[in-house]
Amino acid sequence: MDSSWKKLRLAASAAVISLAFSGAAQAQANLGAYNIDKTNITVSGLSAGGFMANQLGMAHSSVFKGIGVFAGGPYMCAGQSNYTACMNNATISATMLTNMQNTIDSWSSVQIDNRANVAGQKIFMFVGNSDTTVGPNPMNALQTQYSNNGVAASNLKYIKRSSTAHVFPTDFDGTGNNTCSTTASPYISNCGYDGAKEVLTHFYGALNPRNNAPAAGNYIQFNQSQFTSNPGMASTGWLYVPANCASGSQCKLHVALHGCKQSYSDIGDKYIKNTGYTRWADTNSVIVLFPQTKVDSISRSTAASGSLPNPNACWDWIGWYGSNFAQKAGTQVTALKAMVDRVSSGSGGGGTTTLAAPTGVLTSNAATTSMKISWNAVSGAASYNVYRNSNKVNALGVNALNYTDNGLTAATTYQWTVRAADANGVEGATSAAASGTTLGATPATCYTASNYSHVLAGRAYVYLGLTYANGSGQSMGLYNIFVSNTLKKTGSNYYVIGTCP
């Protein structure tokens, strides 16, 4: 493990973590639905959370109207370069930025929302000049990236603060916090600068005075596993709901993403309580969603950084969980968007639907890459959502009693469940699982013969005494009865292979 990765780990001493803010374990409720102003949904994060905030803002630019990045970097940086080139205060070249922009342009309106939406976002950026974990240079590149995508200077606020390390900045002391000039757990510091206030003010305008003692009952631990089975995400997350929002008032929604080594299992409630988000949210009608990650020690292949584990419970800004990690289809992006959709799907007070679980879930019409799932109707349901191996597979609600799941792997067994949803999109109970196995791939058509025989059969041709496969043009060696090759037919082309599968 190289020194840069060790820096990313931000080694911290172990801490005893309380089960809940009040000292007693809280029930893990399903995430509620609230009356949310959908023109005021925003996101911010620190470090890996900052990278993820940027990814969410690019992938779902039609949803997130404000993006706050505390010590992060540009979109798809680690998707195209080793992650060390995107941190350690590395200079990101113009060529790297051009390659990232080409990706944004090519994905626009398909893998991500139309990039034109980015120009209308409000962007807040913060970094310490003493930050060597990520540092000013990657943030400078991020500023350029936003400018290149049309964000006006009036909508982009960029703060560089002296004597500030890799930390989330506040203007109050929190129990166990480190000093502002030191990169150490819990990476939250009294820097004489209220980061939560500044980012929320940039998004929402002037704020009412904060409440320094938000009610413990406003913090809700919720069941996060209903949105994902991603190995890098925890089974529970946290939501802060001001009393007026719980009563049905229309409120704003902000997503606050912690950094590496800042999950609840690492530092308890410090990111939730000591950053200041909830103090300002309480008096300004802002619900704050605090999704949570978890340690994943399995080494996983990435596109640009080789094989790496995720021992620090970082958000996926590197590609641990697929090459589409920064797209709408990325597993963590999908889960976060689903949580936002749930919270913002109500019209009054919070809560969960009482819709029953669908019955009679069956699989049929198996093909090599698809399977049909069907179920019985649920009283009161407006639509249905289908989950494959715990991951939602339909983009919009299914307005029928069956769904064909495509893009599957041949000869593979999957499990599907179905949940009914009400008119606000709030889901009910999960059905029993139905298993199904896709068909095996059609065996390849292969031919093993001498080059002479391949030519006679029309599978190859001769040019200047050498034999070439029809269609692919692959060289097969001398045109000779004593030289043999195996050809595989794909469509109308033939390809030289060693043995026939």
Mean pLDDT: 90
Percent strand: 25-35%
Contiguous runs where pLDDT drops below 50 for at least 5 residues:
1-27
**Total beta-strand segments:** 26
Give the neighbour order of strands across the main sheet.
Answer: 4-3-2-1-9-10-8-7
Helix tally?
Answer: 12
**Assembly state (oligomeric):** single chain
How would you sum up the major sheet? 8 strands, mixed
What does this structure look like?
The protein is globular and about 90 Å long. Strand 25 and strand 26 form a beta hairpin. The protein is 20% helix and 27% strand. It contains 12 helices and 26 strands. It is α+β, with helices and mostly antiparallel strands and 501 residues long. The chain folds into 3 domains: 341 residues, no CATH class; 76 residues, Immunoglobulin-like; 53 residues, no CATH class. Strands 4-3-2-1-9-10-8-7 form an 8-stranded mixed β-sheet, with helices on both faces.
In short:
It is built from 12 helices and 26 strands. It is α+β, with helices and mostly antiparallel strands and 501 residues long. The strands form 7 sheets. It has an 8-stranded mixed β-sheet with strand order 4-3-2-1-9-10-8-7, with helices on both faces. Strands 15, 16, 18, 19 and 20 form a 5-stranded antiparallel β-sheet that branches. It has a 3-stranded antiparallel β-sheet with strand order 13-14-17, with no helix packed on it.
